[in-house]
From TrEMBL:
Residues involved in FAD binding: 35, 43, 48, 88, 122, 287, 327
Record region (Disordered): 317-338
Cofactor: how bound: Binds 1 FAD per subunit.
Residue ranges annotated for the FAD/NAD(P)-binding domain, each copy included: 6-310
HAMAP family in alphabetical order: FENR2
Record keywords: FAD, Flavoprotein, NADP, Oxidoreductase
Protein name (Swiss-Prot/TrEMBL): Ferredoxin--NADP reductase
InterPro entries in UniProt: FAD/NAD-bd_sf (IPR036188), FAD/NAD-binding_dom (IPR023753), Fd--NADP_Rdtase_type_2 (IPR022890), Ferredoxin-NADP_redctase_2 (IPR050097)
Family recorded in the similarity comment: Belongs to the ferredoxin--NADP reductase type 2 family.
Enzyme Commission identifier(s): 1.18.1.2
Subunit-level organization: Homodimer.
The reaction(s) this protein catalyses: 2 reduced [2Fe-2S]-[ferredoxin] + NADP(+) + H(+) = 2 oxidized [2Fe-2S]-[ferredoxin] + NADPH
């Protein structure tokens, strides 16, 4: 691996980085994708593989897992290397080349870099009440949806009122599970159609405006003590599993420590209309990039990926010319196994 020179190195194997890898392959560039975890998929694989994604073109709905499988198949069609378990621990620019340090000891060089690191590494916002540590250790309190293929539990409670909680609850009812939805307000901050779906389901019981006062993990379920926030009345419900749906916080500590620093906008890399950062040759896409009006959606990253790749080519090889439409590409030349 050491010191190999690439045209473009993509840092991060979430949906944005994966599509950038495929698109760079269509342009027959020498590329590598570097991913810190053992697998592709970023937030989609880590946080919501079972959720149905409704806001992507061409798919009426597709689970996170299926989307990432399809992206992986697509990027395997082109000639590009992928390095897993490889965290980029430092990034420097020396003369006109970027030096990428991996896991503190290996190095790659590249003419340009596309950063697709999302918002860094994710951890859930925890439910913190008496009994929650015990329930988490015993597995009755979790923060991700279960693998439905092996899921015997029938009744669930979900706590939270934003997109995470509402998406989780909808996914559970799609799998025929009963859901008690607990939220401290009377309305939800989530996609309107998702909220309507919940409100029309017979499988959902709403506990509003209520907060969890304590948890009691038991051998046959979890007992949840709820306090009504209007009249302070206490009631108890019991379910097989409680799922925390308060969302996730991201940490970009490793990326913030890179030697190369580029301008930030709202704690992310500020990018221009070519997806270029304040450092020439350093492009940023997906959730890692920010500009006024940015929407943190998978579809946004899919659009930014070709822009960044084409801008990178213009940066390191201005004579090469602009992109062609894929209709004029020769599949035999572009696809490795065609
Ligand atoms: C619960 C939830 C539900 C969502 N639902 C939807 C939805 O329905 N529709 C939608 O469009 N969007 C949804 N989103 C948002 C969507 O998941 C993100 O916009 C999308 O994942 C961003 O993709 P990305 O490739 O930019 O980053 P990410 O998916 O965050 O991937 C970044 C990758 O970079 C890697 N990485 C980070 N740092 C390094 C490093 N130093 N070295 C190497 N690799 C590194 C990470 O391991 C990760 O794999 C949801 C998000 C959440 C949390």
């Amino acid at each position: 691996m050491d010191n190999e020179l690439f045209d473009i190195i993509i840092i991060g194997g979430g949906p944005a980085g994966m599509f950038a890898q495929y698109y760079a392959g269509l342009r027959e560039l020498k590329t590598a994708l570097i991913e810190a975890t053992p697998r592709f998929g970023g937030q989609v694989s880590a946080l919501y593989p079972e959720k149905k994604i409704l806001d992507l073109p061409t798919f009426i709905n597709i689970t996170g897992r299926d989307l990432i499988d399809k992206l992986a198949k697509q990027s395997q069609l082109v000639d590009s290397k992928s390095f897993f378990n490889s965290q980029v621990t430092d990034l420097q620019k020396k003369d006109d080349l970027f030096e990428i340090e991996i896991n503190h000891h290996a190095y790659l060089r590249s003419k340009s870099v596309v950063v697709a690191t999302g918002s860094g590494s994710f951890s859930p916002r925890r439910v913190s009440v008496p009994g929650s540590d015990n329930a988490e250790q015993g597995g009755r309190l979790r923060y991700l949806l279960p693998d439905f293929k092996n899921c015997r539990e029938k009744s669930f409670a979900v706590v939270g009122g934003g997109n995470t909680a509402v998406d989780y609850a909808n996914e559970l009812i799609d799998h025929g599970k009963k859901v008690s939805l607990i939220h401290r307000r009377e309305n939800f901050r989530a996609l309107e159609s998702s909220v309507s779906k919940l409100e029309n389901s017979e499988l959902v019981s709403f506990y509003l405006p209520k907060r969890i006062a304590s948890l009691d993990q038991q051998s046959d379920g979890i007992s949840i003590e709820l306090e009504d926030l209007k009249d302070q009345n206490i009631e108890k419900i019991k379910v097989d599993q409680l799922i925390g749906g308060y969302g996730f916080t991201a940490s970009s500590a490793i990326i913030d420590a890179w030697s190369l620093s580029a301008k930030k906008y709202r704690y992310r890399f500020a990018t221009d209309s070519k997806q270029m950062s304040s450092v020439p040759g350093l492009f940023v896409i997906g959730d890692a990039s920010a500009y006024p009006g940015k929407a943190d959606l998978i579809a946004t990253g899919f659009g930014e990926a070709p822009t960044a790749i084409n801008s990178a080519v213009e940066y390191f090889d201005p004579d090469r010319g602009g992109p062609q439409h894929s209709t004029s590409l020769d599949p035999k030349k572009v696809f490795t196994d065609d």
